[in-house]
Amino acid sequence: MRAQQQRQQCEQIRGLINSKRSCSIWLFVESCTQLVLGARSAYFVSLCARLSARLGGPNYKKSGYVLNIDERAVIAANNNADLYEAVFLSHGLRYERLPFGFVARDQPPPYYAHLTALSHKAQNDICRQFKDVVQRFSGRAVMKDNFCQMDAQSERLEVLFDASWIWFGKDKQRPSCTWKRVKSNSDLQLWEDAWKQSGCPTDVKMFNEIFLNKGDIFIFGQKNRGVFEKGCIGNRSRNCIGLSNVFSISRSSRIYDQATAAVASIDPSLPIVGYEATENLEAACRNGFEIVGNLRVLVA
After folding, report:
1. Phi and psi (nearest 5°) for 57?
2. Longest Cα separation, the chain
3. Which of 45, 191, 203, 294 is 20 to 30 A from residue 38's alpha carbon, by CA?
4. Are 237 and 78 spatial neighbours (Cβ–Cβ below 8 Å)?
């Protein structure tokens, strides 16, 4: 009964997030608090946090609620910036890695932001830097607000989408890996074709030989009759392994189980991190990932 009630309330919250209705929302969220504490649903808590972020204040401040930043989210954000560096370097693009953020000096490739926040303790620096970025790119820029620090409403920023940072602890049991690492340029092209077909269309060649041959980048996939059906990218940082670009042509229900096994083979002693949203987030949680924070992508 509780599970059914929880699913119903999750759908209500999801609807409120999408519609951005603000009337008496916090009364509704408060009415769910007991259920959250009892059921301990990571996905449910994430929806509440994302709703709070949509409604305005920096660091989720609203009606006395403050959600602290989990340091694991900071680790995940910095791992994501390591992936950004690999992509930018492979394309010969200029960037700057500051203590509080990754800043593009050249136009980023598709699906990459002009600025991505790396610290939850430098909101003023991030705001100032983003204003410079917007001016540099003629008034149109994208920011990955990794800790939902920005007051999107007062800064007149559009929320492109919400997502959650996810964490798979190093002590968790990991399935055996059946995917193979992509090692040739011909296979890389086939892998990228499948990735684009699965929902990431662009005319730009995203992943090239330079990216493939980086020592901390690992591209995995499952190939059938000369075509990649599933795949992901792993990137190794000092303290974690990043999991990104997870795709399945057939929308496999076991995609996260298999992708986790693939990147876990890079270094079993490290936790796995990443970020996901909507159905992919639910799939990750079903396969042992824990939600450790929330982020938004904002557009000026």
Report:
1. -70, 150
2. 57
3. 294
4. yes
Task: Report the distance separating Cα 170 and Cα 173, nearest Å.
Answer: 8
Residue type for 198, please? Answer: S
Please give the span between the terminal C-alpha atoms of the chain, in angstroms, as a whole number. Answer: 44
Contacts of residue 238, Cβ cutoff 8 Å, sequence gap at least 6: none
Q: H/E element holding 219?
A: strand 217-224
- The structure's pTM equals 0.81
Predicted local confidence at residue 106, as pLDDT: 98
CATH topology for the 180-270 domain: Aminopeptidase (3.40.630)
Q: 246-256 in b/e burial notation, b at 16+ Cβ within 10 A?
A: bbbbeebeebb
Which residues are CB-contacts of 67 (< 8 A; sequence separation ≥ 6)?
49, 52, 59, 60
Dump pLDDT digits (tens) for 240-266.
Answer: 999 999 999 987 778 999 999 999 999
The two structure tokens encoding residue 61: 């401040």
What would the DSSP string read from start to end of 12-69? HHHHHHHHT--TTHHHHHHHHHHHHHHH--HHHHHHHHHHHHHT--GGG-BTTB-PPP
DSSP structural state of residue 203? S
Q: What is the pLDDT of residue 143?
A: 97
Are 122 and 99 a contacting pair, CB within 8 Å? yes
- Mean pLDDT (the chain) is 84
CA distance 98 to 124: 14
Contact (Cβ atoms closer than 8 angstroms) between residue 210 and residue 85: no
Per-domain residue ranges for the chain? 2-60, 71-164, 180-270
